[in-house]
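B., you asked whether I could sanity-check this one before it goes into the benchmark set. Here's the sequence:
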Amino acid sequence: MMRALLIAGAVLLILGITLLFVPIRHRVRHGVDAGPVSFHVDTVERDRVHPGVSAALIVGGVALMIAGSRKR
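And here's what the prediction gave me:
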C-alpha cells in the first residue's frame, strides 16, 4: 500500500511539472455549411494548463510521496 502511494505521488509530480512547460494541442474545425457545399478550415491550437492546476498536481504528488515513504 505504501509503495503504491509513493508511485502515484511520483506520477502526479512528474505530470504537474510537465504540464507547466508542455502545451496541450487540440484541433478546432471552423467552417460554413451551405446546402451541398461546405467550407472548412482545421486549425491546431496549443493551450497551456492553468498554473494552479499544475501546482495542485505537484503539491498532491509531494503529499502522496511523503505519505508513502513514512514507516509505521
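One thing to flag: Strands lie at 24-34, 37-47. Otherwise nothing jumped out at me.
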